[in-house]
Amino acid sequence: MAQYILARLAQSVVVILGVLLLVFVILQLTGDPARLMLPPEATLEDIERLRQQMGFDRPLPIQFLHFMAGAVRGDFGNSLRYRDQPALQIVLERFPATIELGLATLAWSIPVAFVLGLVSAVRRASLQENAAMVTALLGQSMPSFWLGLMLILVFSVNLGLLPSSGRGRFAHVILPALTLGGFFMARLTRLIRSGLLDVLAQDYVRTARAKGLGERAVVVRHALKNAAIPIVTIIGLDIGTVLGGAVITETVFAWPGVGRLAIDSISVRDFPVVQADVFVIAVAFVLINFSVDVLYTWLDPRVRLA
Amino acid sequence: MARTPTAGAALPVPARTRPARWSPAAVGGFVVLVLVCVTAVAAPWLAPHDPMGQVLERRLLPPAWTAGGDWAFPLGADHLGRDILSRLIFGSRISLLVGVTAVAISGLLGVTLGLLAGYYGGRFDTLLMRMVDVQLAFPFILLAITVVAVLGAGLRNVIIVLGVAGWTVYARVVRGQVLSLREMEFVVAARAIGVPNHVIIPRHLLPNVVTPVVIMATFAVATNIITEASLSFLGLGVEPRIPTWGSMLSDGRAYIGRAWWLTTFPGLAILVTVLSINLLGDWLRDRLDPRLRNL
């Protein structure tokens, strides 16, 4: 077990180093990052000054080493917009808001997906199955920002029940969490349903039924438990999608998290913050996957023995 | 398509997962998708007005069936007096163009790399899989937003970004299939009689990975349409003068309290198109390869 975790940890470190490399390469795609970071009306002197200040005038391998040395210490340089503040600090200040939104999203979407998935797998060819499947299909096909706008239209503009932007009270998180969780809930519903259908077709489930076990016990004790293992993995992987989706949702609802910070920073060309932001989201994603893998080995010993 | 045996082909597919030849949902999806494609191709003939034509007297004109509407502009007009229906019709072109072209790029890239990594293995395979891990650590939309922000918005850049960002899923699945295929008798036999690798890969391996690739590509078109709309919504999509469903939503957002039709119709267009592709993709997957249902 310890050996598996260590190997998986080493793999995560390699991925994080790769993420840093990608973050560095993306900025170099322009050919001249200094020109990108400054507004179009900047003079040649301005560009040259920034180039020297940020070290863009040095050879590329040196720049990369410098960037890596800073990044592993959490130093992505100072924000170009808020001159005195380190980029990473700005990102980390916004991170709790994204965590809050993410947790609120998972808190409603996972239970709802379980109920819909379970109902649609157990009650085949019924009205409930059709309703659950239509909900899932619509959720998977709907752009999240449109869902957000429609929720604002109905609950904020027409009914005046919930706020359409900001953060603070519980009411503020309801619409963003519904928006962000729509796709996740839909995808999870379908996965739970197909996972359960697979398990329900197994011989041991037939045996359980044959020996007279009640349907509830068959589903909860035998089917759900065995279907849970791949579902946990998918939930872990999809939490990353929730983090990515936060970029759009936070923009729609002016939610002050790292997703909105990324878009704001891109629009004012504050690339040190963009780099720190992308890095933090990617690291969070890698850490979540690592945790899920460890949980997975605990749930299913065959994985660590393989 | 002639299918030679694959590693998993021996597994019996439970009868419950094998659907009828055509399901009503699949037929519905197919019909809607054909209609969207015809609309995109025939846009200049179908659109009742110039999608870019601004007439300020009719700004925020409501849909025809509501008070103050005009049947000459069935879905109303936007904040610059442009006809919503004509913009929706022209917007379908961008959605389909980006969706299909980006999938072609990512499919070509991912399948080629997956075939080579799976067949040759070794360091190339290890390196490729680490690259896949790194790219998967980035939420897709965040990667697309960052690269478009650096490269600059525009149709070409959006297609390139979505094309290049989407290769990992193909590479991973194709590599996995090839890893088992290369040990199968028909491949071993081909190698034994001296068939060179550059013939084995396209002639014996490629046809056996086409099925999952087609299924993944179908779903990827839907994902790309949503991502393109998201980028346009954030102002990072195609040029502002070109009508797209995402940019229409973005424009309409500021008027959501006064003109619901600006945000409702473009979103419905995206929803219907993506839904029809997903329905078709579901049917294709259940029909061709039910083992891929976790995709």
Q: For the largest interface in this structure, which chains are involved and how many residues does each contribute?
A: A-B, 53 and 48 residues
- Name the CATH superfamily classification of the domain at 95-305 in chain A: MetI-like
> What Rg of chain B do the Cα atoms give?
23 Å
| Proportion of helical residues of chain B | 55-70%
Main β-sheet description of chain A: none
| Approximate strand percentage of chain A | under 5%
Describe the structure.
The complex is a heterodimer of chains A (306) and B (295). Chain A has 306 residues and is mainly alpha-helical. Helices cover 79% and strands 0% of the residues of chain A. Chain A contains 13 helices and no strands. The longest helix of chain A is centred in the last third of the chain and has 38 residues, at 215-252. Chain A is globular and about 85 Å long. Chain A starts with a helix and ends with a helix. Chain B is built from 11 helices and no strands. In chain B, α1 (24-41) crosses α3 (84-120) and α4 (122-136) packs antiparallel against α7. Chain B is elongated, with a radius of gyration of 23 Å. Chains A and B meet through α1, α6, α7, α8 and α10 of A and α4, α5, α9, α10 and α11 of B.
What characteristics describe this protein?
heterodimer; A: 306 residues; mainly alpha; MetI-like fold; 13 helices; globular; B: 295 residues; 66% helix; 0% strand
